[in-house]
Design a protein that fits this description.
Blueprint: H1 18-41, H2 44-57, E1 63-67, H3 73-82, E2 86-91, H4 94-106, E3 113-117, E4 130-136, H5 145-155, E5 156-167, H6 176-194, H7 200-210, H8 215-223, E6 227-234, E7 239-245
Parallel strand pairs: 1-2, 1-4, 2-3, 4-5
Antiparallel strand pairs: 5-7, 6-7
Helix pairs in contact: 1-4, 2-3, 6-7
Length: 246
């Protein structure tokens, strides 16, 4: 099933596949990524991750896969708070992964957290390998969401849990105008000042607006084979956490 988000590319006049464009974009903005995340969300992204980790805790996963791991914020948090046997992170961008590896080393987690580059739509792992699969702010960048969910379903063990954190669009008529002004005007302006990639932070709000949300996202998960699919919206609807089991 093709969805609108798959047609939103980082670079408007670039004819390459979205996957290649996303890789180059994150390589470009990697040095500014963590700073921009904190600034854009006023630090609330840390709270969103904390809630997701609490939701995962009761499953006591031993082997965790963090897809689109970026600079490894969630992978590190999972390792520190849940004490699994192993956390494996995978991301398209070598620039992001390299920064993540530095953070892993600084926290003394090199024996617990392994980061690698690879295509999230063709995961280099065997079937039924992980007790939990996570994605934080990454599924809207997938070139094919259905293939992404199919791959995560494949590598998840029966009974395992998936947890997806994704930015979303508020539905409240009181919040919407302020949200639109912030995401469509202020974030791109600050992004152009901080990052060398002038397009990346315009792509961000466009991709949020286009990604399936709520029931539409849950249906994608069901179509991939997941059950017990649930959505929890946070902070006036600006973030959603989706969970399901295999």
């Amino acid at each position: 099933m093709e969805v609108k988000a798959e047609k939103i590319n980082p670079y408007v006049n670039d004819t390459r596949p979205k996957t290649d464009q996303v890789r180059d974009m994150f390589d470009s903005i990697a040095p500014a990524y963590d700073f921009m995340n904190r600034a854009m969300t006023f630090g609330i992204d840390k709270w969103w991750r904390s809630l997701a980790v609490k939701m995962i805790r009761k499953h006591s996963p031993a082997q965790i896969l963090d897809v689109a791991t970026g600079t490894a914020d969630l992978a590190i948090k999972l390792a520190l708070e849940l004490h699994p046997e192993q956390v494996t992170g995978i991301d398209l961008s070598e620039g992001m992964v390299e920064l993540g590896r530095r953070k892993v080393t600084e926290r003394g987690l090199s024996d617990k957290v392994t980061l690698t580059t690879g295509d999230c739509l063709a995961l280099p792992f065997a079937d039924n390998s992980f007790d939990c699969v996570t994605v934080a702010y990454g599924v809207r960048n997938f070139e094919h969401l259905d293939r992404g969910y199919a791959e995560m379903f494949r590598v998840l063990k029966p009974g395992g849990m998936i947890c997806v954190i994704e930015l979303s669009t508020p539905q409240s008529p009181l919040v919407k105008p302020f949200y639109r002004l912030y995401t469509r005007t202020l974030i791109p302006a600050v992004g152009r000042l901080i990052s060398k990639d002038t397009r990346a932070y315009s792509y961000l709000p466009e991709s949020i607006a286009a990604v399936p949300q709520g029931d539409r996202m849950l249906q994608l998960m069901r179509d991939a084979g997941f059950t017990n699919c649930l959505c929890r919206t946070l902070t006036f609807g600006t973030c959603s956490i989706y969970t399901a089991t295999k």
